[in-house]
Structure formats: structure tokens, C-alpha cells
Amino acid sequence: MHHDGWPLPESVDYVLRSTASAGRAIFARRNIKPGTHILSTTEKYEQLRSPTVHVILRPYRREVCAQCFAYDRGREWKCRLPDAGVAFCSVECRQQWESVIGPLGLAAHQAIETTIKKQSKWKKTTQDSTPMTTAVDSPDLDFDAAWQAAGVVGKQIVAARTKEKPSKTEQRYLREAESAPADPDFLAYLLSGVLVTHKRSAAPAMVGKDADEPSDESSIPGTDMVSELFPDLMALASDSSVYTGDSPLSSWTKAYKLLLAILPIPLLDFLRPAICHELASRASHNAFSIRPAGGSDGEQSGEFLGWGVWPEASFFNHSCRPNVRKERVGRIWTFAVSEDITGDVLREGEELCITYLGGDEKDLDVEERRKKLKGEWGFDCQCQKCVEELHDLPLSAILHERS
Length: 403
Ligand SMILES: C[S@@+](CC[C@H](N)C(=O)[O-])C[C@H]1O[C@@H](n2cnc3c(N)ncnc32)[C@H](O)[C@@H]1O
Description:
Protein name: SET domain-containing protein
Number of helices: 13
Structural class: alpha+beta
Region (Disordered): 204-223
Number of strands: 14
Bound molecules: S-adenosylmethionine
Pfam families: SET
Organism: Exophiala bonariae
Strand content: 5-15%
Strand order of the largest sheet: 3-4-14-11
């Protein structure tokens, strides 16, 4: 199965197919023994993927290694690049991080860190100036239109930074973007996506691809670029209701505009509205949380340290009785058939599922699990375990869940 020329996960052991009620899913092509390795996230396109699209939440930036995500019960790592807002568990990790991210990536991190520090001072010392009302913040706008409007502002910000004699309006948009505080975690997450896009644009497989403005004027600016350079992101299920709750559209557009105002100039061409929109909407149903590694069953558990998107690993559906075990070592996820499956083998035709619940959540009862999955992932779990356990519940409990 392909998505615009990008191969979707497939091997001698498994294949991706559509299901009636849970989108696409991975199915066994033959009987597979427990313990069999299914997938690792470095096997294909390695040179195009690094650095992983991810964010370590700001409160944890001194406690989680920026390179391998090591976390040691809240201990702050000593090896740091304070002006870039990152810490490392070892000098080797720091060197690896610097070599992958390069001078431009480092400068971008420094720009974000400087701005966040400056803005937190501004917040303390000045009254919030009345922001210029832009159409972007209106809740009635659909997100296509909102991102298009943000793109119009974005062009002015870029003009203010790159033109020899920018207009007054352009300069005003730049000043406004610079002084509007944005969510530091959105800034870091979007930057990681922009760095991947930038890196891929220079990779041999991608050079010469047309990444210009879309020919279709109704699409979000940058759509062609994100399709060309990030086909694996575009192959993932998107979430049109991403801009709700603690992820409002205005937080994303603010982060987009602030990044345009502060990132090194060579990155600006890769910071397009469509890239930001796709990074937001595809992460919503596909991100893996980054938690301390190595619970008793190998699954991560404990604090929510951050999240990331590993596109090739995003096609496993959830089951409350998973038959595939996932494990993160550093930045790499590996998936293997669980040793705990019932029977000697995972049978041909069976769906391969991981759990989306944390290691410490798997013992919740059926109603709690379903509430959690609905709240965090937005779906009514259709897994076999839920079907069986719901069957055993009194009708009143099921009606209560549906209401
Ligand atoms: C990481 S994606 C998995 C791949 C996805 N099915 C696809 O077509 O790309 C997560 C999404 O798959 C669907 N899904 C996963 N597990 C499910 C389950 N047990 N019951 C219902 N839907 C499920 C939900 O829509 C969820 O948001």
C-alpha cells in the first residue's frame, strides 16, 4: 500500500489494511511467534528523519536528555547548553545532538530560548499591550481560512526581516509577533518539524522537488511543500478537531508567527502554515508520549515528559489486550510480538495492536479505560477486550457511557 509514493508499513509478517470501524490497521500475514521483532523506527529513510519531530516539555528540559530522552527520577543533568535550553545525560549525547542539529538548528534553539526568557521578563514588567485583532483568533473561522490569514501576516513578518526597506505595516507585524508570548512547547515542537523539513529539502532523494506555493489557491500555504517533503507525516490520520481544549488554533498561529520573527533566516522558507497545521493535526492522533523508559513489562510509565511523532510506527491500533509490545530505547521504538499472547503464535489474519495506555493504566476497569481513551484519543475503543467486558456489564452502565 502506498501513499503518494511513500511506502506504508509492510513486511513478510504484516500488511496494512482498512478496517470497518477503526481506520487502517496492521494484520498478520502469517503465523508469528511470540518475541518476533516486527518493526524498529530506524530501518528506513534514516538520513531523512533525524531529528525526530518531538518536544520535551519545558519543565523537564533540565531533567530529560535532549538526545536520548534519558530521565533519572527528576535529577537535573549537569551537561547543558543553557543558552539553547537543553541538557544531556553525557558529553557523547551532547556531541551527537549538536552534530545532528547542526549550527543552524543550534542557532534556532538559542533564538527560542532567548525569546522565552525575554518574554517572561516582559510579562513581569509591562502591562500586556492590546494585541492587534486579527481574524486568526476568531473562533468562528474554519482552520483553513485561519491558517491562510496567518500566512498573510507571516509574509509581512518575513518581509520585515528580509527586505532592505520594509514598510511600516510589515515592521509593525514583526514587532507584534515578537512581543506576543507563545507556548514554549509549541515553539519547540514546531521547530523540530521545521528542522526535519529543512534537512530533507537538502537530502538527495528530495532535491529538485518542487516545493513552491500551491497551485490550488484554496489550500493552506505550504501544502505542496509539506506533501513533497513530509509524505510520511501526510500519510497519517489527521484530526480536524485538534484545535480544541488546551490546543487552540490561536496558540499554534501565535507560535508560527513568533518563530517567523525569531528563527534564523534560512529556516523561514520551511516555516509554512501548512507545515504547522499538519504537525498539529497529525500529532493529535499519532503522537507517542515520552515517559520514563523501562517499566517492569518494558513499557514506559510515569511522568509525561514530552511527546513525539514516529510516522512509520503510527499504524498500530490500540487494544486493551495488546499482542505487540513496544519499547523505546533512546529515540528508537521497537515493536515485537508480545510473549504474553494466548496460544503459541499470533495467527495469520489477526490484527497487531499495541496499547495506547501507560504501563500504569492497563489495570483500569473497562469503563475507566474507555473514558481515558475517549478523552485523550477521541475514540470509542472497539477492541476485543472491551467488547467482551462491555458484554458483561449491566445495560444501565452501557447506556450511561453513551449518554
Ligand atoms: C495511531 S492511529 C492508528 C492508525 C489509524 N487507524 C489509521 O488509520 O491511520 C490512532 C487512531 O486509530 C483509531 N483507533 C486505534 N485503535 C482503535 C480502537 N481500539 N478502537 C477504535 N479506533 C481505534 C482511532 O481513530 C485513533 O485515533
